[in-house]
Each structure stands twice: as C-alpha cells, then as structure tokens.
Amino acid sequence: MMDSLTKQNHLLEAKSTLYGFVSTLFSDPESEKFSMMKNPEFQKMVLNSCLQFDENNESELSGTFQKVISMVNELNRETIQNENVSIFGHTLSKQTAPYALEHLKSTDVFFRTQKLADLNGFYQAFGMEVECVERADHIATQTEFLSYLILKECLAIRKNLEEETEVCHKAFIDFNQEHFYDWVKMFSENIMEKVEGIFYPAAAEFLSIFLKNEKQSIPA
Q: How far apart are CA 167 and CA 65, in angstroms?
C-alpha cells in the first residue's frame, strides 16, 4: 500500500507526463518533438499515466489516447501535416487558433502586449526559455510549461522543500486561471465541433477529457 504522499507524487508525475503529451500532440508535425509519439517507450509511459489518471478521476482518457496513438502509428506524416496546415494555417479561424492571444475578447494592442509579457514573465521566473519555433502563447508552449511546473513541484515534495512546493503549486493555479484553462477549453470544443479532419478532432477529444477532469485541481 502506498502512503498518501507517495500516491500524490505519482499522480503529479502522471499529470506532468500528460501535459507534456498535449504539448507534443499540438506541436509541428514535422518537428522532432512530434516524432516522439512514434516511440513505443514514450507511448507506454503516456498510457501508464492515462491509466493512473483514469483510476483517480474515473475518466476514459486511456481509450482516447489509444485512438490518437493508433492514428500516429497508421497515418503518414504528410497526412497529419496537411490537416495541421488546413486547420492552423494562415487562414485559421480565431475559434480554432492554437494561440491564447487570438481568443482574447479585447483587441487592444497594449492589453495583448501586456498579456504576452505576463506569459514570458512566468516562463522566465521558472527558468524556461521559449523556443523561437513556437510563440509564447501557443498551446504547445503553455502545456510544456505546465508539465515543467508540475515536475518541479514533484521534486520539491521529494526533497521536503515546503516553500518551493507551494510556489510551484500556486504558479500552476495562477497560470491556469490567468492564461490557460478557459481558452484551451473553448479551443478543444471548437475543434471537435467545427473541424473536418481525422487526427486533430481526436487530439482535441483527448485534451477535452483531460481538461474536464483537471478542472477539479484548479480552483474557480
């Protein structure tokens, strides 16, 4: 029997893996990052995290994950890339844009610039550098950061660093409330409802199920 702290840490590690998987899922299909999904060891690690998440939340994330991965294994890269361009290319709809700033109601340039500065402030405060290939407000960048934050919290718990644990946990909640959860929830729902495709509607379904259950750990 695991004690509650060990169980909590295992679940946090699983969540970190799942946020990392979402980052991979919505990264450029031609990138090395996306290629990781072809790796059997990576697939096994994410599936184990899904199963652990399902057990804790009574969700069906693992089944959706297996559907997505079967597409990764079976579809050629060009098919996924073409779908990516048709959905997220230059003529993209604001409703399905993978960028947080595109979902802001305000079009005020100063407000949007401040939001971007706030995002970069979060990343810099925790030592994460944004690669130039992805914008700071891209879903793949944001989920990579959340994965990284949870991992830092796990390490702090293991080392009994209470203050650092609290800082990471608060940053996770603040980032979700201010920059992530609301727009990504709409983004996933819009792709499922409005996009014609094979791969990305399935990816959005995975994201939607994950978010619905994650909402429990994010105070309103």
A: 31
